[in-house]
Amino acid sequence: MDLEALPPAVERTVAELGGVDILVNNAGGAVPAPFMDSRAEHMEWAFHFNVSAPVELTRLCVPRMLERGGGAVLNIGSMAGAHASRGYIAYGTAKAAIAHATKLMASDLAPRIRVNAILPGAVETWALNWFLGYKEEQGEPVRDTMIERTLLQRNGEPADVAGAALFLVSEAASWVTGKLLEVDGGWCFELLPRVIPDL
Question: Which of 23, 97, 152, 196 is the most buried (most CB within 10 A)?
Answer without folding.
Answer: 23
